[in-house]
Write a structure and sequence with these properties.
alpha/beta; Rossmann fold; eight-stranded mixed beta sheet; 8 strands; 44% helix; disordered C terminus; binds adenosine-5'-diphosphate; binds magnesium ion
Length: 265
């Protein structure tokens, strides 16, 4: 059984790539096999956090979209690269070449692409979780990612613009029959201490808040140089996110569906 999850936010810079990368290694630490996909094709960044160089990425999602390589060519097993003792993490990166980014913006890709990738990862790599790291906002790519996923993890800050946008995003996801769970990120430390915060915010945005991650100076200072919780396993950020990983496992154990897909890419 494979669960597909899209990590998304209405606005940019909410911590999607940071959360995706840290969540992947925490799920692996819990014995899970995880694949993360950088679907922020117009501004990829996940490879930076994973310390995956362009030499390591012989082929990218862009090459696969245009039939220049096989599926196996774009799947990078980074379990050993990250020195993970348990589970597995696979990474599928996007091209950083300007001409490739322009091409995919101009030409787009098939609406079956997300489901095709998830199916391949499920069947050929036996992964438990497929996590799509997306571009922010309510664009076409996002809606495709949402429609192709079992659950959406929406990240938001305690900012009025994020609150309004997250509410709208959740409502749209509901219209597609998709469940969204919300993680509050970069929460000011004084607010994060309030035990009523998750229930209060859940009511306002009409979606379930499953975790709170305070703003930590150390994460900002880390400057995306590696996966934070591998460098700082004892840091409160790592333990808070571990709770979210466990919660996600609980929630998806009951709600995930078997992927039944037949489409071509
Ligand atoms: N809880 C946090 N506390 C402090 N800084 C954070 C936190 N989460 C993420 N960041 C920082 O915020 C910036 C944006 O994060 P990123 O994951 O790149 O966002 P996105 O992928 O949504 O654009 C990065 O510099 C990251 O280190
Ligand atoms: Mg990002």
């Amino acid at each position: 059984m494979t669960t597909t999850c899209v990590v998304h936010s209405y606005r940019g810079g909410t911590g999607k790539s940071t959360t995706t990368s840290n969540l992947s290694v925490l799920l692996a630490a819990l014995g899970k096999r995880v694949a993360t996909i950088d679907m922020d094709i117009t501004s990829p960044g996940l490879h930076v956090i994973y310390n995956v160089s362009s030499q390591m990425m012989n082929f990218t999602l862009n090459d696969y979209i245009y039939n220049r390589c096989s599926f196996q060519d774009i799947v990078l097993d980074i379990t050993n690269h990250l020195k993970l003792p348990r589970g597995a993490v696979y990474f599928l990166g996007s091209s950083m070449k300007p001409e490739e980014i322009v091409k995919v913006i101009r030409e787009g890709y098939s609406d079956k692409f997300f489901r095709h990738v998830a199916e391949k990862l499920s069947q050929e790599y036996n992964v438990d979780y497929v996590i799509f790291d997306t571009h922010p906002g309510l664009n076409e790519d996002t809606l495709l990612a949402v429609m192709s996923s079992d659950v959406s993890l929406l990240l938001m800050r305690m900012d009025k613009q994020d609150v309004t946008g997250t509410y709208i995003t959740g409502q749209i996801m509901k219209k597609f029959g998709r469940i969204s769970y919300v993680v509050l990120n970069m929460v000011p430390p004084n607010l994060a201490e309030s035990p009523d915060l998750p229930s209060e915010v859940s009511k306002i945005i009409d979606a379930s808040v499953i975790g709170i991650l305070p703003f930590y100076e150390e994460i900002l200072s880390h400057r995306s140089r590696g996966v934070f919780c591998l460098h700082h396993p004892q840091h409160p950020y790592s333990s808070q996110l571990l709770k979210i990983a466990k919660r996600l496992i609980e929630l998806t154990a009951t709600e995930s569906q078997t992927i039944d897909l037949t489409g071509a890419k």
